[in-house]
Specification:
The structure is a single chain. The protein has two domains: 79 residues, Rossmann fold, CATH 3.40.50.720; 97 residues, N-(1-d-carboxylethyl)-l-norvaline Dehydrogenase, domain 2. 55% of the residues lie in helices and 9% in strands. A three-stranded mixed sheet has the order 3-4-5. It has a two-stranded parallel sheet with strand order 1-2. β4, α3 and β5 form a beta-alpha-beta unit. It is elongated.
């Protein structure tokens, strides 16, 4: 590579490795962006890929047209490594969700519901109709859990009933039981009347982070969505 040129790392990589590579590139007067992609082979063929970019803003601005030729959802996230962090959060969330869905569908089918009928039913519920990450804008990203959209005490009751059904039918409910433990701890904090998502505060406390995004910023991001 000639000095002054740029390298885009499109792989799913460890942020620590990306930052180390970035330092080595910089020593040789080379720019680097971590630019992991999401969309799979079909997205690559159609150029319908999401790219999460980490690195210097000026390097991103200079090469944005090239990145836009790779995918249709190109977003600058922050300093080097930030793109890789976003990709890991995205992928890990997806597999956690899949594990949870396997658990509850096993419960539903063993309880006697036909799989397709179960799928048709739940996909039209409140959760099924919403984009997964859009639900975070209601309380979690705002850092506000009052007033409740659906009270924690009611959600605790529902998950308790589901885990009890699993016990009755002999269906392992590992993730549901972990969730119930979180909800029970939140109930012990006196949060029963707060929104059911208030239990998410427990993990933020353990990690030592706070999240409270200005609602105007959230609305601005949602307004950028392209029509499907």
């Amino acid at each position: 590579m000639r000095p002054g040129s740029a390298w885009f790392d499109l792989s799913t990589n460890a942020p620590s490795v990306v930052r180390r590579l970035h330092k080595i590139f910089a020593e040789r007067d080379l720019a680097m962006l971590d630019a992991p992609v999401s969309g799979g082979p079909a997205g690559a063929e159609s150029a319908k890929l999401a790219l999460w970019i980490g690195g210097e803003q000026k390097v991103f601005d200079e090469h944005q047209p090239v990145l836009a030729a790779i995918g249709d959802q190109v977003r600058y996230i922050g300093p080097i490594g930030a793109g890789s962090v976003a990709k890991l959060v995205h992928n890990c969330a997806g597999y956690i969700i899949n594990a949870g869905l396997a658990e509850v569908f096993a419960l539903g089918v063993k309880a006697g519901v036909e799989p397709l009928a179960l799928w048709e039913a739940v996909r039209n519920g409140a959760i099924g109709r919403a984009r997964t990450f859009d639900q975070l804008t209601r309380h979690f990203l705002l850092g506000k859990f009052d007033p409740a959209q659906f009270a924690l005490k009611l959600a605790h009751k529902d998950v308790s009933l589901a885990t009890a059904l699993g016990h009755e039918l002999g269906v392992p409910m590992r993730l549901a039981n972990l969730t119930l433990e979180e909800m029970t701890e939140a109930m012990g904090r006196g949060w029963g009347g707060r929104d059911s998502r208030s239990m998410m505060l427990l993990e933020l406390e353990r990690a030592g982070v706070e999240i409270a995004v200005d609602p105007d910023r959230i609305r601005a991001v949602l307004a950028q969505d392209k029509p499907a």
